[in-house]
Automatic annotation (TrEMBL):
Membrane topology: Multi-pass membrane protein
Family: Belongs to the ABC-2 integral membrane protein family.
Domain ABC transmembrane type-2: start-end pairs: 44-277
Source organism, top-level taxon: Bacteria
Region (Disordered): 1-22
Localisation per UniProt entry: Cell inner membrane; Membrane
Keyword annotations from UniProtKB, A to Z: Cell membrane, Membrane, Transmembrane, Transmembrane helix, Transport
Protein name: Transport permease protein
A single GO molecular function term of this UniProt record: ABC-type transporter activity
PROSITE patterns for this protein: ABC_TM2
Gene Ontology CC annotations of this record: ATP-binding cassette (ABC) transporter complex
Length: 285
């Protein structure tokens, strides 16, 4: 005699209990899919997201060079255009990292498609890493496009005096603004809120961070204010990588403290943003 077996029971035994997660550990495939999705999103309009910032930044260089550099003015021992170029590259990278990271969640909330980001089996850390990594990628692309435009402009000399500083401060600056952009998108309820952060926080801190001048020309009070601006250390450290001189110092030892500081700042901002994202604030409530 053959033993009777209930097919329903057997099929049920092949499935795990309800509510038991099937993807344990790090969801590499999901994270990679989110990262590629974010990359494709801004590459579909790369004229606007990558090349337009290069043109805008080049206009800054042209205007300030014509206005202040006609007489062969030198700053930190180099022509004014060469002095300004690294700061403009860093400024373009940071602003575009913020713009990219601040769009996805905010657009999802406004269009009612936020469930497409919250429903997949991604932890809050994986969601954060995917969005921030895509923003850093865009920042690097914009930085490359701006650097190419600067290199082609007559009177600008780009050379890597300290490559480690270029890489470190470039990545740290992009990471900081990507994290801030993600945090802003969690807080914002409409595009006006996001634009307010850009216009009243990101842009002023970028322009008043020593991009176009050395802070030694300022009064002691404004020098102190400038040194409290984290953008100052990002741009000055990045400039040190190209010129070997900056407002922070002219040696690796002088800049190393700032390098550690910006890394710690990014770690703190990352933890805060992760906790806010995990709480579901303005996403799940």
């Amino acid at each position: 005699m053959h033993e009777f077996r209930d097919p329903v029971t057997d099929s049920q035994r092949s499935f795990p209990p309800k509510g038991q997660p099937q993807i344990t550990g790090f969801n590499r495939i999901g994270l990679w899919s989110l990262y590629i999705k974010e990359i494709r999103r801004f590459l579909k309009v790369q004229t606007q997201t990558v090349w337009a910032p290069a043109v805008t930044t080049l206009l800054f260089l042209i205007i300030f060079t014509v206005a202040m550099g006609r007489s062969g003015r030198e700053v930190l021992g180099v022509p004014f255009a060469t002095f300004v170029a690294p700061g403009l590259i860093m400024m373009g990278m940071m602003q575009n990292a913020f713009a990219n990271a601040s769009f996805s969640l905010l657009a999802g909330k406004l269009q009612g498609t936020i469930i497409d980001l919250l429903m997949p089996p991604l932890t809050e850390a994986e969601l954060m890493i995917g969005i921030v990594s895509a923003a850093i990628t865009r920042a690097v692309m914009v930085g490359g496009a701006v650097a190419l435009a600067m290199w082609l402009w007559p009177g600008v000399e780009l050379r890597a005096a300290h490559p480690w500083a270029i890489v470190w401060f470039g990545l740290m600056g992009a990471t900081m603004l990507a994290i801030v952009g993600l945090l802003a998108s969690l807080w914002a309820e409409k595009f006006d809120h996001n634009a307010a952060v850009t216009n009243f926080i990101v842009a002023p801190l970028s322009l008043l961070s020593g991009t176009f001048y050395v802070i030694s020309n300022l009064s002691p009070l404004f020098q102190m204010i400038s040194r409290a601006n984290p953008f100052f250390y990002m741009i000055s450290g990045f400039r040190f990588g190209f010129l070997g001189a900056s407002d922070i110092g002219n040696t690796n030892e002088a800049v190393f403290g700032a390098a550690i500081g910006v890394g710690v700042l990014n770690l703190v901002l990352g933890v805060i943003t992760y906790r806010v994202l995990k709480s579901g604030w303005k996403l799940k409530s």
